[in-house]
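Researcher: I've got a protein sequence and the SMILES for flavin-adenine dinucleotide. Could you write out the 3D structure of the bound complex as structure tokens? I'd like something to compare against our soaking experiments later this week.
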Amino acid sequence: MNTTFLIVGGGQAGAQAIDTLRREGFDGRLILVGEERELPYQRPPLSKKFLHGELAADRLPFKHRAFYDEHGVELRLGSRAIRLDRAARAVDLGDGARLTYDRALLCLGARARPLKCAGADLPGIHYLRTIDDANALRAELRAGAHAVIVGGGYIGLEAAAACRHFGLEATVLEMADRVMARVVSPAVSAFFAEAHRARGVRILCNTRVESIEGRDRVAAVVCGDGTRLAADLVIVGVGALPVTDLAADAGLAVDDGIVVDEYCRTADPSIFAAGDCVNHPSPHYGRRVRLESVDNAFEQGKTAALNMLGRDVVHDRIPWFWSDQYEHKLLIVGLQADGDERVTRGDPRRGGFSTLYLRNGELTAVEAVDDTKDYMAARKLIAARTRLDPAKAADKSRDLREAAI
Ligand SMILES: Cc1cc2nc3c(=O)[nH]c(=O)nc-3n(C[C@H](O)[C@H](O)[C@H](O)COP(=O)(O)OP(=O)(O)OC[C@H]3O[C@@H](n4cnc5c(N)ncnc54)[C@H](O)[C@@H]3O)c2cc1C
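Model: Sure. Here is the predicted complex with flavin-adenine dinucleotide in place.
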């Protein structure tokens, strides 16, 4: 009998799982259900080159339609899975169809966290998660307009860079006392804040949005201290929430993400999950995490696919992430929160420096600003659980590997 594998969610993880399954010789029925109409596509350019108008829409998909045809992948795009019936091993779609499976993989991703305040649903307020979001935003990026960006994280700052690229006035409102506070060191925050200020972006930290005003569309943002900022458009980048309803409604464990084991398997042996929607164990760091990154979705999509084929592969990767802002590249490897000592390597007023995180002397994470060499070295050092001499590690004239104890 023909085995059916059903992938729900056509993003980075789902696309990778399909690729791996066919590459590894799975010759059963393979179905992809995706809520978006587009073929699976890359999201990072949506806040970078695509938003800047430097990358055409036809460059976004991972694979062209011919790939899916040639590999016998049944595409159910523009179709939302609304119910997972574990007893019947079936998924119901919004259009009334029912698909049965032998094994299912949930790659549901995350959705933009909505802003909750008066006026938050006015036209002219933008989020950035999908191609449709990016197209709608791009249409409003007109020179001279004033954009207020809520949230000084990656998405907010990358959007601010795009606003300046198109000649808009850009003001970033950040609740914390520095930008990207949740994810990078104060030195890296300060470097990027300065890069944005030098390009004319106004950054207001310790600032909360109280309400958004406007009659037919957004006209102003009112801050917690009463400041009123005129706005032609508002871009909201206040984080993302894992999409878990399908799993939770089917009785699968959910705890800031669909709970899986190190094989990307839920408690139901025929259901796997991967990517932004997943809470998974990190054997290297000895704790559970939920990550939002291309690397994580790619690797978990691959691992889940191999385990759907019965290969017993453990997902144990050192996570990495990048962000592009103007000419600067931020590369992060490892989990910063695990460090108990921070070392600055190089001059943080200029590019080409890093923040290193150590735990009991062992290198656990690195944030490298315009420094691919340190980043590459760090990947290997972290994976090998290398202990570093902090004084030697801080000395930029030495190769980072020379600091190994
Ligand atoms: C603007 C932007 C910029 C980014 N930049 C970077 C970057 O520079 N570096 C980096 O590492 N990461 C970046 N990321 C994060 C990265 O893109 C994500 O981590 C990655 O896309 C996650 O892949 P995924 O497959 O888990 O989820 P997604 O790519 O979100 O895909 C999930 C898919 O599932 C679909 N879906 C959900 N529920 C259902 C349902 N019930 N039925 C059918 N389909 C469903 C969704 O519509 C979506 O298409 C960025 C993300 C965004 C939005």
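Model: The pocket of flavin-adenine dinucleotide is lined by residues 8-14, 33-36, 43-44, 46-47, 80-81, 107-110, 128-129, 155, 243, 246, 275-277, 292-295, 297, 321-323 (CB under 6 Å). Residues 294-308 form the longest helix (15 residues).
Researcher: Great, I'll pass this along to the crystallography team.
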